[in-house]
Specification:
single chain; about 350 residues; alpha/beta; Rossmann fold; six-stranded parallel beta sheet; 11 helices
Length: about 350
């Protein structure tokens, strides 16, 4: 078995479009490579006619061209549904006007696959609403590399000392775009002015997205892209993720792998795997964010308990655990092709 693993634009101009961004898409792609390494399955990151399965991330135009080429060679096609029309909203300014077109295109592109891997049950429900057949849709977590994300006291001390952090520090990781809940994050910072709030992640120009407020609360820092993301997670005491729309939210699993207590917005994508009061807290609105963060600030035992349960969640979604399911997906897909050829 050999896999052709493809992420559009990954190799374009030396990969410049993916440098210093730190998206969940890129993290997922790297996780897929690590899973193939765990399985000892050879793979190519460019189109290779000797592959048995073409595995696509983000089926944009060149990906569709390669899919059609693979079809002519009777290769099996897997597409990861990292993108839905819903989660393109509030990303870049122009996307809000393209919603119907993006949705129509994704229906076509995902329809070309033998299997569409959905990062969550929620994503699967969206694709079912698009009209895609359920037989094609398999829920498969993006996973988390627990060997990359872990508690590291040394990195914590270095990062906190370099930024003069004292006391309980609240933060998040992700692109600084409106969809991620910047307004609620800033409101929390204003309500807890005695604590430091850090947002680690790339900041786009105002041409691309709505810019950050010209005047930020004095206890808030937007760092921009950081090289050492492990140090960033370890510097925090509470992880807040107020995003309005996700297909899974890989940074949640990464924060969980570091053992952080997690506070998220109560949105459908977390149903079933994030459980309020057990491995996280879920807030429906700004008032609940304030209330639950206040509880986390005051209650050391609550932070510890939620962090421990979050760590168990990360282990359940480790690459080692997910590799077993991926191996089964690959083998069943190829077995079905073999049976079809025999009949």
């Amino acid at each position: 078995m050999k896999i052709c693993l493809y992420l559009e634009f990954y190799n374009f101009l030396g990969g410049m479009l993916f440098k210093k961004i730190g998206t969940g898409l890129l993290s997922s792609y790297k996780n897929q490579k690590k899973i193939l390494d765990i399985l000892d399955v050879p793979y190519s990151e460019k189109w290779d006619e000797t592959c048995d399965i073409l595995q696509i991330n983000t089926p944009w135009l060149n990906s569709v061209r390669i899919i059609k080429k693979a079809r002519r060679k009777r290769k099996k096609i897997i597409i990861w549904s990292h993108v839905t029309a819903e989660d393109t909203q509030q990303v870049f300014r122009v996307f809000s006007y393209l919603f119907p077109l993006i949705r129509k295109y994704l229906i076509y592109a995902y329809g070309l696959a033998d299997i569409v891997l959905c990062p969550s049950e929620y994503t699967k429900s969206l694709l079912l609403a698009y009209g895609l057949p359920e037989s094609k849709l398999i829920v498969q977590s993006n996973g988390v590399d627990t060997k990359k994300f872990y508690q590291d006291l040394k990195k914590r001390n270095v990062e906190r000392n370099s930024r003069s952090l004292r006391g309980i520090t609240v933060g998040t990781v992700g692109l600084a775009i409106p969809r991620k809940g910047i307004e609620d994050f800033l409101n929390l910072a204003e309500n807890f002015s005695d604590h430091s709030f850090f947002w680690y992640g790339k900041i786009y120009s105002r041409v691309m997205v709505k810019s950050l407020p010209s005047k930020l609360p004095s206890n808030v820092t937007f760092t921009g892209y950081v090289e050492d993301i492990l140090a960033a997670f370890n510097a925090l005491d509470v992880f807040v993720f107020p995003s309005f729309e996700e297909n899974q939210g890989m940074v949640i699993l990464e924060a969980a792998s570091v053992g952080l207590p997690i506070l998220v917005r109560d949105i459908p994508v977390y149903k079933g795997w994030l459980r309020h009061g057990e491995n996280c807290l879920k807030a429906k609105n700004g008032n609940e964010f304030k209330m639950y963060l206040g509880e986390l600030m005051k209650d050391t035992d609550l932070r510890k308990r939620l962090g421990e349960k979050a760590l168990l969640l990360a282990k359940e979604n480790s690459l080692q655990a997910l590799s077993i399911k991926m191996n089964d997906i690959y083998n069943k897909l190829l077995a079905n092709e073999k049976n079809n050829q025999q009949t």
